[in-house]
Amino acid sequence: MTQEKSTDIRILDVEVSFDPVTFRAPLKFGGRVVDHTYLINACVNVETRTGNQAKGFGSMPVGNVWAWPSADVEPAAAEAAMKAYAEKFGELFASYPEYGHPVEIQFNVGAEFHHQAKKVSERLSLSEPLPQLAQLVATSSIDAALHDAFGRVHKTNSYNLLSAQYCNEDLSYFLDDQFAGEYLDQYTLREPTAKLPLYHLVGALDPLTDGDVTDRPNDSLPVTLVEWIAADGLTHLKIKLAGDNLDWDIDRVLAIEKVAGAAQAARGCGEWFYSCDFNEKCDSADYVIEFLKRVKKSSAAAYDRIQYIEQPTSRDLEAASAAKMHEVAKLKPVVIDEALVDFDALMRCRELGYSGVALKACKGQTESLLAAAAAQKFGMFLCVQDLTCPGASFLQSCSLAARIPGVSAIEGNARQYCPGPNTKWAKRYPEMFNITDGTVGTGRLSESGLGFQSPSWSATGVDKIDDLAAAPTTSERIVRKSERQDE
Q1: By C-alpha distance, which of 332, 381, 385 is closest to 356?
Q2: CATH number 3.20.20.120 is the correct assignment for the domain at 196-444
Q3: Bridge partner list, 481
């Protein structure tokens, strides 16, 4: 570190636990169906140079099917490896001896990511190490908890602790010399955006009308797209597409346009939007161009509603066959998602013609903030997306979206597919979870830490919302404490 701040913190201990989450309806993307996940929960206890202490909390789904879609490692094995990786980094973060800002601590501990990915996979006898995206997702809860604790120990929102007053290094330390003398406060807002439109996912298996319903869950929630639009006042729809079946993809968009048009007319809404997500399944940029041209020919209105295209081709940016998106970007913004794992990847994507960035809290608070700064520096389109995040993980995602200038909407899928963990949070933050006008009330996210109160822990895991006064006692808890002596 080039400097030392009185506001610097060090980590005293890290606690990691896992909560199982069952889906009320299956979610299909990238050719695979997901019906369950685990939440990786992390509690980080920190101390300032003056001895003040506070705890912070972070939570994120494992998301292995999205983060590690391997042909050789089965989903269950990938899920187990990501949980083991989270446990290992609970130990490593707890043993990190230096004081610093959370961005600096995360960046420095992150130097171990690739090495530990190999070690964890070897220990579990897997044929490949955790890919970089899986590494980020598995450690994102700890990263979020660290930022949350930093805000709590200083009794301030974490997004207001990103200036030179609190950071020992400017952005050139993490990115490159283009960012010399700049800090993250230049790329974030001091107050959260009051509200953001909610992007509602229309999965490949999701019914559009009653005629498509084959199995209605035994609950009171909407099921069809028509019902969701009416209940939540939706204006933004994210459409999951096949990417390898052009006729199906076009027909799906046109069917959604027809159904949405009738549903919106019934409630007097004349303006709504789409994003199109091919989950990397397109074999070329030509596929996307043909898709857009044929949609426009069939329905100019549907074409005009498309705000952006999300990562249509492979996340492998170094492959000789990596698709160039320059021509697609002339038609619609093309955002990088799965390929965006660090600054180098962002720069490579720009060379390939990508014109936008999809931020995701599951890639880590630190990495998301750095990517947001770079995207703004280069004038790229910005959106914040979801890993079907319930409970605290959704609040983290919303807090990120509400603090990044230029973000126009926030994706939130858990209320459709796995709403169970939302229940206790909705009681305190109803404007975040009970959607009625198509928007999320993000202005509420101005409290200390990441903007919302953290939960305490009980014998069955994360339970009630307060100020993390109690220590966790869950049977699945993993406690990782540093063995260093006080200096």
Answers
A1: 381
A2: yes
A3: 13
CATH number corresponding to 9-174+451-481: 3.30.390.10
Q: 265: exposed, middle or buried (C-beta count within 10 Å: 0-12, 13-18, 19+)?
A: exposed
Neighbours of 2 (CB within 10 A): 7
- Token pair belonging to 153: 């120990």
What three-state secondary structure class fits 142? helix
Could you give the dihedral angle defined by the CA atoms of residues 408, 412, 416 and 420, in that order, rounded to the nearest 10 degrees? Answer: -150
Q: Do domains 9-174+451-481 and 196-444 have the same CATH topology?
A: no
Please count the other Cβ atoms lying within 10 Å of the Cβ belonging to residue 430: 13
Q: pLDDT digit of tens for each residue in the chain (487 aa)?
A: 456 899 999 999 999 999 999 999 888 776 778 899 999 999 999 999 999 999 999 999 999 999 999 999 999 999 999 999 999 999 999 999 999 999 999 999 999 999 999 999 999 999 999 999 999 999 999 999 999 999 999 999 999 999 999 999 999 999 999 999 999 999 999 999 999 999 999 999 899 999 999 989 889 999 999 999 999 999 999 999 999 999 999 999 999 999 999 999 999 999 999 999 998 999 999 999 999 999 999 999 999 999 999 999 999 988 767 899 999 999 999 999 999 999 999 999 999 999 999 999 999 999 999 999 999 999 999 999 999 999 999 999 999 999 999 998 999 999 999 999 999 899 999 999 999 999 999 999 999 999 999 765 433 344 444 444 333 333 344 444 444 333 3
Alpha-carbon dihedral sign for residues 328, 330, 335, 340: positive
- For the chain, the domains span 9-174+451-481, 196-444
User: Alpha helix (H) ranges present in 318-384?
Assistant: 326-329, 343-351, 365-377
Find, among 282, 362, 384, 322, the residue nearest to 67 by Cα: 362
The answer to whether 37 touches 63, Cβ cutoff 8 Å, is yes
Please spell the DSSP secondary structure of 229-254, one letter per residue. Answer: HHHHT--EEEEE--SS-HHHHHHHHH
**Contact residues for 208 (Cβ-Cβ < 8 A; gap 6+):** 202, 224, 225, 226, 255, 256, 259
